[in-house]
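for the writeup, i need someone to sanity check this before i put it in the appendix. the sequnce is what the collaborator sent (i think, or maybe the updated version? ugh). structure was predicted straight from it, no edits. if anything looks off just tell me and ill rerun, i have time this weekend
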Amino acid sequence: MRHIVIVTTSYPDKILGSEAAGSFVEDIALELSKYVLVTVVTPSRSNSLQQCGNLSVKRFEVPQLPLSLLKVGNPSHWIAICKILSKGQKALIEVINNQPVSHILALWVLPSGYWALKVGEKYNIPYSTWSLGSDIWSLGKVPIIRNILRKVLQNAQHCFADGHLLSDATQQISKRPCKFLPSTRNLPVIDKRELRTCPPYRLSFLGRWHVNKGVDLLLESLHKLSDADWKNISVIKVCGGGPLEKLVRLEVNKLNLAGRPIEIYGFLGKSAVAKLLYETDYLLLPSRIESIPVVFSDAMRAKCPVIATPVGDLPRILSEFNVGCLSGKLSPASYSLVISKALTVALDQYIKGIEEAQSSFSINDIVNKLLNLDKS
């Protein structure tokens, strides 16, 4: 039986907040395991091996998580980075020595693709990469790291990226083709829903409380809404957690004192996300830096329109599919205006666009492409 290894720094564990980043990777692994043997190799807080049917998950201990907090430009992080690079290669080699591997899928280019490159060269195993925005738009700006990125990408059998603009940027670095492959996951189906035709509407933000995700931009824009706008809002739920937590709680408290109906929740598991989206009329996407967030495909599956900022692939998608409203600029004032506009329209106008978008974010289509990695 064919054996595909997924090496990734995004895989859910029992820590709240990890699921949003990696649950779609878990869904991909589970779906792939219906057809082939799958082993996931991922960093963790301790060493462990879990097996269920055709799916195995090998976790290897690293000195620090999340890995995104480690910076190459900080000499005090170099020892930890070297240890992690070594441990990842060792864990991947252990898997290969236990069971022949037909293909390695690296999510994402660094450090996962680096592990796949080193081990793939040694054992003559083809590998493919799947790029994230942080790979290309952040790490790709560091000269030495950019060279490593290029080498990893150029030696891969296939290159994928989870956004159209990101695919173009990946091609610029690698000087080779890079195909768009969306990141999406399976959400529980709650019930059949009908989109509302009039306010008051329920709005939700779901994501990390980080400047890239624009939660601070969102809160500033909410302060700019008029009393008439707030009459069209039933409730706004702000869900997640992260480095801007102090600011989020402070600003939400100010809005609450002004009589605005805003509620705060922490990180949500997959079932809770599904429930939230089925109870939401508009998902708020105020990002400053974005490709196509997983929560966007979540919203499409739950038939939930979005209110987005004009970043990444969101303008292209909202132009192609009528699934919500897009602000004219990346600013609190502009985002406030688009929220105000969205509160006055009937949501049933988005039904056709959402149904069309759903077919573009199919996990079955993604898995079919991945099943053919080592056949072409």
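The radius of gyration is 21 Å. The first helix runs from residue 18 to 32.
thx in advance!!
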